[in-house]
Design brief:
With about 625 residues, the chain is an alpha+beta fold. The chain has 19 helices and 35 strands. Helix 11 packs across helix 12 and helix 18 crosses helix 19.
Length: about 625
């Protein structure tokens, strides 16, 4: 079964709702006020099945929109997900203001299929009907509803004239409509929220992508609330599953009507990221009354969402009527917008439609070189070019598949297949689930070696740069850093000793006075045994400055010639080795030792005894039990 969403459009009182009722038998005006006033105020919904050309059933879901200029915002909440439009024009009035505005909106949203319906044909004579047809043909010339490409039918909802012909035209038109992707990531923009007795919270919307099943867990954007689908209804019928292109009602648990509102979106959990910045391509209508200036505030509509945003133009001070431009849209609150999403712009005041466009990037970088080229690639490039551009702009950090899903809206299987092909071709390099552009990998390797060499130059007395400091300098992720350093080790360009990274074959080269100072430091601690002098006293007696002296001490500590057992005490390794031998020999007499016995054994004061015993505890030579130490 093929599901298609059909939307109405047109001026108030041109018979949109009457036409839907004549076709489906359903009155789409559901509000008491609508029935009392005789005008559509909010979105209305209906459905019908028609036999398809190949024997399949076509399920048509209708979104009936209000035609009054005061309710265009409601019209916009429903028109974003339509596949086929019925442009309704009354034969006795022809083109009117909302006919023009609605049609502008349809073109800005990229609607490609439709039928022009001249209603109230029973109210005019043949001559008047012909005049109306000519006027409408002239209005639609060169558009997707041009009479050479799209049918124009005269009908009467009152007498039923032309309805069968309209149904046949809809069947023919639906054959040209590309089905929405039910395998894509599910997205349901919410256009209604209400409570239903016996069910609880219910939301409705047009499922613009993917599939939703009963018992699915979903996330509400932008609040991040988790909800569970207790029930699914498609076109008024209970169902186990809803697929893309269907009007869908979901009975939800985990949220009340106070937690949900029109404009929110339901998606799979932990899939997308909220944004308050999007880069877009926009077009100002030729009929706009004035230019769109940089930093202008306008109303933005996308699917069921409406908000006031700031437009920051890229490389321009203003956009003239009829012109296109690249821009960054700044939203007042976080929202879900993905590349490919269409939007409508309406002037801040007076509120009239002035333009629209398409989202190119919902994860923009604050300052990016060649932004125009990047956005042009997103707009016109194929999948390979788009992924290359997105991964390349992360430079040496790379991207994970999860990040790419969030940025593109593409499914994981689609991305995995494309990334595998690009990696095999050498365009990308992957490690630890992250992908780097191959030129970025080459640059990263050069940067690592250069950073290590610069460190050696500035710190000749230090054996190498710590891994974490090096990673911070080259600005990459831990996974990528580990893989790249391993690669450079195999290529014999760097070496790693413990936590330090150095150039392959590098060793500390000291000046004469530095070598002399190193020997003095080592001799001072070697000759002291366990009664070591304060470190600052030893450093203070050297000919070199304290900074270089401290670096020499660090070098001796790194090579474990000296061992620091507390903030104040440093010992020569030979002295501590001898202490271990003394403790081992003492164990032959007793398996335990206290502070007094330790002082007698080593000849040191309490000042040294306590830190030394704590060091032996850490080294698991001894273990403290009360006032005694057990010897292992």
């Amino acid at each position: 079964m093929k599901s298609i969403i059909v939307g109405t459009a047109g001026h108030i009182d041109h018979g949109k709702t009457a036409l839907v009722k004549a076709l489906t038998g359903i009155d789409a005006d559901r509000l008491e006020e609508e029935k009392r006033r005789g005008i559509t105020i909010d979105l209305g919904f209906a459905h019908m099945d028609l036999p398809g050309p190949n024997g399949e059933t076509l399920r048509l879901g209708f979104v009936d929109v209000p035609g009054h200029e005061r309710f265009v915002r409601n019209m916009l909440a429903g028109v974003g997900g339509i596949d086929l439009v019925l442009l309704v024009i009354a034969a006795d009035e022809a083109i009117k203001p909302q006919t023009r505005e609605h049609f502008d909106i349809l073109q800005l949203l990229g609607v490609q299929r439709g039928i022009t319906v001249l209603t109230k044909s029973d109210a005019v004579d043949a001559e008047t009907l012909d005049v109306a047809k000519l006027e409408v043909e002239d209005f639609l010339r060169g558009t997707f509803l041009d009479a050479s490409k799209s049918p124009m039918l005269a009908v009467s909802s009152l007498t039923g004239s032309g309805l069968d012909e309209l149904k046949r035209a809809m069947v023919a038109a639906t054959a040209e409509v590309k089905p929405r992707d039910s395998h894509a990531i599910a997205r349901l923009p919410i256009d209604r929220v209400f409570t239903m007795k016996g069910f609880g919270t219910v939301v409705t919307g047009t499922l613009v992508a993917g599939t939703i099943r009963r018992e699915d867990e979903l996330e509400v954007f932008p609040t991040a609330r988790r909800v569970r689908v207790r029930g699914v209804h498609v076109h008024g019928q209970a169902s186990e599953v809803a697929t893309a292109g269907q009007r869908t009602a979901l009975n939800l648990s985990g949220a009340s009507t106070e937690d949900l509102t029109r404009g929110m979106t339901l998606v799979p959990p932990a899939t997308f990221e909220k944004t308050r910045r999007v880069d877009v391509s926009l077009r100002l209508l030729a009929s706009a009354s004035r230019p769109l200036k940089d930093r202008a505030r306008v109303h933005l509509h996308s699917y069921a969402m409406e908000t006031v945003v700031e437009i920051v133009l890229h490389g321009k001070k203003q956009v003239e009527p009829g012109e296109q431009a690249l821009a960054r849209i700044k939203l007042p609150e976080a929202a879900l917008l993905l590349p490919g999403d269409r939007f409508i712009l309406r002037q801040f005041s007076p509120v009239v439609t002035i333009g629209g466009g398409v989202v190119l990037d919902s994860s923009p970088i604050a300052r990016m070189a060649k932004l125009g080229d990047f956005l042009d690639t997103l707009s016109n490039g194929d999948a390979k070019a788009i992924l290359t551009a997105r991964i390349a702009r992360t430079d040496q950090k790379g991207m994970s598949i999860s990040q790419l899903v969030a940025e593109t809206g593409w499914t994981r299987p689609v991305l995995e297949a494309q990334l595998a092909s690009m990696t095999e071709a050498g365009d990308l390099w992957s490690t630890g689930g992250r992908f780097l552009h191959s030129p970025a990998l080459k640059a990263l390797k050069v940067n690592v070696v250069t950073a290590v060499a610069e460190f050696h130059k500035k710190n000749p007395l230090v054996g190498g740069i710590s891994k974490e400091e090096l990673r911070a300098r080259v600005d990459t992720t831990p996974e990528v850093f580990e893989a790249v350093t391993a690669m450079l080790i195999r290529e014999k360009k760097i070496e790693v000793a413990g936590d330090l990274v150095r150039l392959a074959g590098h060793s500390v080269v000291m000046k004469d006075e530095e070598s002399e100072s190193k020997k003095k430091i080592e001799d001072a601690f070697a000759s002291a045994g366990l009664k070591v002098p304060p470190l600052h006293d030893v450093i203070g007696g050297l000919k070199i400055d304290k900074v270089r002296a401290q670096k020499i001490v660090t070098l001796l500590l790194r090579d474990k010639v000296l061992i620091k057992i507390s903030e104040e005490l440093v010992f020569h390794r030979a002295a501590l080795d001898q202490l271990r031998n003394q403790i081992a020999a003492y164990k032959a007499k007793s398996a335990k030792i206290d502070v007094a016995a330790f002082k007698a054994l080593t000849g040191v004061s309490r000042k040294y005894a306590i830190p030394l015993l704590e060091y032996l505890d850490r080294e698991r030579v001894t273990r403290r039990v009360g006032d005694m130490r057990e010897i292992f």
